[in-house]
């Protein structure tokens, strides 16, 4: 099957799935989607969407409620991500070099759907595999916060989560950007790396709220990305800000704008204070 036919098949499958004509949990059961090299051999992980009918897990407490991912919240999450990427791309963060070609992130419904399956487990944990035919190297950031009533708005929880991911930059440095690796002291830097990866162009997020007894109300959020940082490879290429962009974003001047039909395959080569700087007070 040629590439055009594969793309057409995926589009038809997604449309049919959305109409509820067939079950689509088997669409993600190809073991090749979840084959990972461990350095000596290949391991196979279970895909979060394989055999998953989209229901809440039995482990979820009674009353667990998915957060509606409205356009307003989508815009908020995109602005938070892109504001953070823009700061890095422009060289506004001390000790980090600017990026020559970092694209803006745009929303992806399939990534959102698969992220929703993660939060529907009501467990703060990465899933074993979330790859798709279109995104064979999909990345993931997860966050959880708890508090007793009164509960801050969902949007504030989202801002807090994204801010915490981004502020992992204090434990990283340009060395990790030039050649990604784990932190030698075990400090978390992967969420930050994911946020500023220049091969990531799409994101989709989901969130859920549920009670955790004396700990209060939990807010669990997962964001999936179309690409994940790869060990020993650069997180982003350094250079004059946006110097390799064919078109620069008007809103985020350090980021590259791109068309919606941009193909990531090798063959084709007023929302309340969305700026990342407004978030530290929430931490």
From TrEMBL:
PANTHER family: CYSTEINE-RICH SECRETORY PROTEIN-RELATED. CDD domains: CAP_euk. Residues 72-234 form the SCP domain. Its main location: secreted. Belongs to the CRISP family. Keywords: Secreted, Signal. The keyword Signal applies. Residues 1-24 form the signal peptide. Gene3D superfamilies: CAP. It is found in: Secreted. The keyword Signal applies. It holds the Pfam family CAP. This is Venom allergen-1. One of its GO terms (cellular component) is extracellular region.
């Amino acid at each position: 099957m040629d590439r055009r036919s594969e793309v057409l098949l995926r589009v038809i499958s997604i449309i049919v799935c959305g109409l509820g004509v067939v079950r689509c949990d088997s669409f993600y059961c190809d073991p090749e989607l979840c084959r990972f090299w461990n350095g000596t051999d290949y391991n196979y992980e279970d895909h979060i969407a394989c055999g998953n009918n989209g229901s809440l897990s039995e482990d979820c407490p009674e009353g667990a409620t998915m957060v509606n991912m409205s356009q307003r919240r989508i815009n908020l999450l995109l602005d938070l991500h892109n504001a953070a990427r823009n700061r890095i791309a422009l060289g506004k963060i001390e000790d980090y070099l600017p990026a020559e070609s970092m694209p803006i992130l745009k929303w992806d419904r399939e990534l959102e759907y698969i992220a929703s399956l993660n939060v529907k487990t009501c467990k703060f944990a990465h899933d074993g595999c979330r790859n798709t035919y279109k995104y064979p190297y999909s990345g993931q950031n997860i966050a959880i916060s708890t508090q007793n009533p009164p509960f801050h708005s969902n949007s504030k929880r989202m801002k807090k989560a994204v801010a915490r991911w981004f502020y992992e930059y204090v434990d990283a440095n340009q060395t990790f950007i030039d050649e990604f690796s784990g932190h030698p002291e075990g400090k978390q830097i992967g969420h930050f790396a994911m946020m500023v990866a220049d091969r990531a162009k799409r994101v989709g997020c989901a969130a859920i709220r549920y009670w955790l007894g004396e700990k209060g109300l939990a807010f669990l959020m997962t964001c999936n990305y179309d690409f994940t940082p790869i060990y020993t490879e650069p997180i982003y290429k350094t250079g004059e800000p946006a110097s390799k962009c064919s078109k620069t974003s008007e809103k985020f001047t350090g980021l590259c704008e791109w068309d919606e039909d941009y193909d990531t395959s090798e063959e084709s080569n007023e929302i309340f204070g969305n700026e990342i700087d407004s978030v530290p007070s929430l931490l």
